[in-house]
Task: structure prediction
Amino acid sequence: MALMSVRNLKKTFPIRGGIFGKKIGEIKAVDDVSFTVEKGETLGLVGESGCGKSTTGRTILRLYEPTAGEVEFEGKSILQYSPEEMRKARREMQMVFQDPFASLNPRQRIGKILEEPLIVHGLGGAKERKEQVEELLKVVGLDKFHMNRYPHQFSGGQRQRIGIARALSTKPKLIVADEPVSALDVSIQSQVLNLMMDLQEQFELTYIFIAHDLSVVKHISTRVGVMYLGRMVELAGRDELYRNPLHPYTQALMSAVPIPDPDAGKERIILSGDVPSPANPPLGCAFHPRCPYAMDVCKEVRPEMKDAGGGHQVACHLLDQ
Amino acid sequence: MAQPVLEIKHLKLHFFTDKGVVRAVDGLDLTVQKGEIVGLVGESGCGKSVTSLAIMGLVPKPPGKIVDGSIIFAGQDLTKLNNKQMRQLRGKEIAMIFQEPMTSLNPLFTIGNQLIEAIRTHEKISKKAARERALDILKKVGIAREGVLDEYPHQLSGGMRQRVMIAMAMVLRPRLLIADEPTTALDVTIQAQILDLMKSLNEEFGTSVLLITHDLGVVAEMCDRIIVMYEGQVAEEADQRRLFKNPAHPYTQGLLKSIPKLDEQKKRLYAIPGQVPSPFNLPAGCRFAPRCEFAMEICRKEEPEIVKVDEKHFSRCFLNQKEAIDHGAHERS
Result:
């Protein structure tokens, strides 16, 4: 059984305007997305800004209420849970955010920040909690004396370690990491990626790793999903996806990544135009206005996700040709 | 060789703050030849952006102060010019584009208004002629729609805004374009468009480009020569091939090893240990020594000089110095 299974997830945000704040439209941030996450794997979600990858991550933890669809965690539908039940369930699924400064209370000491989830979930007495906080700091490569410091006294990399420690404190099964290394310098980025991979092994964690950087996602993921304008366009095993991208968008995205090797000498596909607005997505395939292979059918019919063999799923009409 | 477009000699720019002196740029040498694209790379706080602001004369003084060195542009020392003289150069001879185009465009004026103002500040031509020039340059940066001139910055996407910024920078055909993280705020498919555009403008106009970025992939694709900065100093300088194929400085080596690459899969990434030291409290000796896996006794005591390790390849490291000395001794014998 999959640890988490997401079916036909939709999330729309209303656009309000006029003096009475009437709803004048909606943004389809996540538009019919389905995937499963197996225990112990890392599912990478990539895409450009506005593609809905972060909203997907937040919606499956019910930080945003989904508009439609189904989210199951260990076989149970979490969308039916009451707020109280959901809070208990969140012990098993935690989140790491991009900007660790914005997500750490500047007025609390690190010890308190890390202890809070334990108090909320009623885990252990005061003495045990303190021991656990010390243990957590050690696990993420910080020291005991850091407990008495405030967030501003740490560097970006250290703050992200604290964010990870906080997510780990309730011993979760699933961690959704939303751009956890995007704000970090390269030398610090590799430290945090290594830490996350070590912790995954040590605590048998499952990750949903959301990022815009294809190289980073490739490094850490076992399976990767590519999103475009609220939709999943391709989903496959890591090696399969990067070796054999089938969707024209995935192909363009990969060819656009600059490679730090003067001999790489690859052919670059330069897409024309910008990503359309999610308030007014194109009919049919959302990618067709920028797609070099667009056919007539692409303008009218939205392609469904289909298996192209060996679990490599892709939503593109070219496959039917 | 012909006179370089830009020659920075031993530049020291320090900030005098209440907490102490920050040696943001500390003895920097840098040249840009005509038509060349030079990359300036490093992590946050290494002094790469301050260097670009120093060239433009945009460092707030105080707290900033150029304590030593010179910035020679087209035969004159920019550090000795007054505000009025600088203003005549800025935009006309040296142009700059920034990371976030929205903050460098005025939200209250139309694109046309801002482009025409840029032209008419430096050249005495009619509004109509300026409008023609504005349209012409917009076409060159890939915006064919005439209506853009009457639109406001918020009506454009991030990629389009950056194109407008590039148009504004290039419209007076400057000799030097400084691009400070021009694509960092953009998505990769848009980044590819903008890099492509910058390269073709460089070829068409022969404009020299100083490209400042933290992205080693971007410099590998764009630059002829690359300068790696660490804590206000040049750690290594080499042409693009040598830097990526044969990096000499342990910091460059570490950086290259620590980035995940699309075309290879590693079990574990190399991580440079520790973190960038506080600028108020720089280590004695080599600034990279506390994080360097090859650090020797001498590295913690003395500051290494930058030495030549190969043709057009320089590195600030005692390891290279030793090799250079050995090499020299060998040649003499």
Observations:
- The interface with chain A takes residues 43-44, 157, 159-160, 187-193, 195-196, 214-221, 240-241, 244-245, 254-256, 258-263, 265-266, 268-272, 275-276 of chain B (CB under 8 Å).
- The CA atoms of residues 47 and 232 of chain B lie 5 Å apart.
